[in-house]
Amino acid sequence: MLEVERIKVDVNALKHGMYVAELDRPWLGTPFLFQGFPITKDEEIAQLQACCKFVFVDATQSVGWEPDMRLLRRMDEYLVLEQPEEETSAAHPTPRFTTQRVNVAAEPRQGWKQETGSFLSVLQRARETYGRTHDYIRQVLEDVRLGRSIDPAEAKQVVNELVESIMANESALVWLTMLKHRDEYTSQHSINVCVMSLVFGRHLGLSEQDLRELGHGALLHDIGKMKVPLEILNKTTRLTDDEMVELKRHAGYGYELLKDSEHISERALDIVRSHHERVDGSGYPRGLKAAEIGQFPMIVSVVDVYDAITSDRVYHMGISPHEALNLMYGWTPNSFLRDMVESFIKCLGIYPIGSIVELETGEVGVVMTMNLAQRMRPIITLVLDAEKRPYPVRKLLNLAHYANDNWPMNIKRILQSHAYGIDVRSLVLEGATEEVAAAG
Predict the structure, then answer these.
(1) Strands 7-10 and 364-369: what pairing?
(2) How many whole angstroms separate alpha carbon 435 and alpha carbon 395?
(3) What radius of gyration do the chain's Cα atoms show?
(4) Is the preceding omega at residue 297 within 30 degrees of 0, hence cis?
(5) Of 365, 343, 368, 370, nearest to 411 (Cα)?
(6) Angle between helical axes of 185-203 and 295-309 (0-180°, round to 10)
(7) pLDDT at residue 217, as a whole number
(8) Per-residue DSSP letters for 273-297?
(9) Residue 276 and residue 251 in contact, taking contact as beta carbons nearer than 8 Å
(10) How many angstroms separate the CA atoms of 38 and 24, rounded?
(11) All residues at 6 or more sequence positions from 103 whose CB lies less than 8 Å from its CB, including other chains
């Protein structure tokens, strides 16, 4: 095998098995989810040809392919695989981040306050919807715990309102899923999984009726946990084998509670029973494999794990959205279908809502909304100044308004969960200020 890190390859010479380590342009703004991937499909070659003129291939990570040594010549820091009949084009320079302090104390651009104000208005309506949903699911879980009968028809009305809210502005409800309190984990987790499943389902192109069924099952997916002893659910140490067996019964308990109701569809019921199944057959309760697991349970299983590992629990601290997505991608293709996780990552975006980010200026904020038109430039809530001191007043900053050389406000990096002691949940509880000001 050739002992070089990168080989420059014209996109017209790409083949299956090549490992693309770098593009001729920044990764952000391209259709590719990860910085580095093996070519396994003709579609990937076509996408690379559409947005690049050449790429850098890592020969050591490529499978079933080695470069033709006759076509290689040394150039500075890498080797170039040239097309025999056509000269390879020059690279597009990749911009580098700077650490210089940027003065952005000038007035906000025209239209900034109107756009941010609109988001705050939507956020308030979403907060009301989330609150009503929380009241409902908390009562349902209590009823099950006490052995009272429940009516799944009421859940349909709640989900319908969530669907309408997501159609209006999904970012507002996703922001509210950051409301995670370890003492109310089951109820908040149920709502968060419902909201995120609806957002994911919409991203996958599900119809409105499909979304309603998906949301119905997602909202009630953990209802069977109320039949599991509290000492097991709240245990802070490792579960014994017997306790784990009992915990795993919650999927079946939930199915039994709901199966005789005429107000819940078979697909929604399937979510309740099968959201812990895994594509390699290692899940429960039935040990189903990929072809046997329906689309709806697969969607909810991805969201269920994502919300669980980003939440603070009595036995662990939640990790950041970015860390969670990287971890879940590593669990493919055993636990989840790779295409499903990749779609979920694309759904949440490069900077998932709730991510703690540091700007080039040194200031630190939390991502509040996705920006599908400019994925590198979400709306953030500024929390710390360049010296990492808390701002006395929270400020909303729309990075889309700082996209040229005169307003160089870019995200430098994503920070880990709870970086600098930032509690995202407390920011959600505080809400955003109506005052919109530039950072400085």
Answers:
(1) unpaired
(2) 7
(3) 24
(4) no
(5) 365
(6) 130
(7) 97
(8) HHTT--TBS--SSS--BGGGS-HHH
(9) yes
(10) 17
(11) 440
Mean pLDDT, all residues of the chain:
80
Three-point CA angle 435, 436, 438, nearest 5°: 135
**Sheet with 356-359, side-by-side order of all strands:** 390-398, 379-384, 364-369, 356-359, 411-414
The tokens 């994502």 sit on which residue? 306
Q: How far apart are CA 288 and CA 293, in angstroms?
A: 6
Q: How far apart are CA 111 and CA 319, in angstroms?
A: 35
E strand or H helix at 125, and its extent?
helix 112-145
Q: How many residues can be counted in the chain?
A: 440
The residue type of 214 is L
Q: Which residues contact 80 (CB under 8 A, 6 or more apart)?
A: 7, 8, 72, 73, 88
For the chain, count helices (H), then strands (E): 13, 11
Kindly report the pTM of this predicted structure: 0.71
Whole-angstrom Cα distance, residue 243 to residue 250? 12
Centroid of chain to Cα 370:
11
φ, ψ for residue 127 (rounded to 5)? Answer: -60, -40
Residue 39, CA distances (Å) to 89, 131, 210, 307, 338 in order: 22, 46, 33, 30, 14
CB 224 within 8 A of CB 255: yes
Beta-carbon neighbour count of residue 136 at 10 Å? 20
pLDDT of residue 12: 86
Separation of alpha carbons 102 and 369, rounded Å: 23
Confidence (pLDDT) at 408? 58
Among 245, 141, 130, 155, smallest CA distance to 185 is for: 141
Residue 306's CB is within 10 A of a number of other CB atoms, namely 24
CA distance 122 to 379: 14
Q: pLDDT tens digit string along 267-321? A: 999 999 999 999 999 999 999 999 899 999 999 999 999 999 999 877 778 899 9
Sign of torsion, CA 319 322 327 332?
positive
Residue-level pLDDT at 341: 94
CB atoms within 10 A of CB 5: 15
Query: What is the distance between the alpha carbons of residues 379 and 375, in angstroms, rounded to a whole number?
Result: 10
Query: Which of 138, 125, 110, 208 minimizes the C-alpha distance to 171?
Result: 125
Residue 320 burial (CB < 10 Å; 0-12/13-18/19+)?
buried
**What parts of the chain have a pLDDT lower than 50?**
1-4, 69-116, 432-440
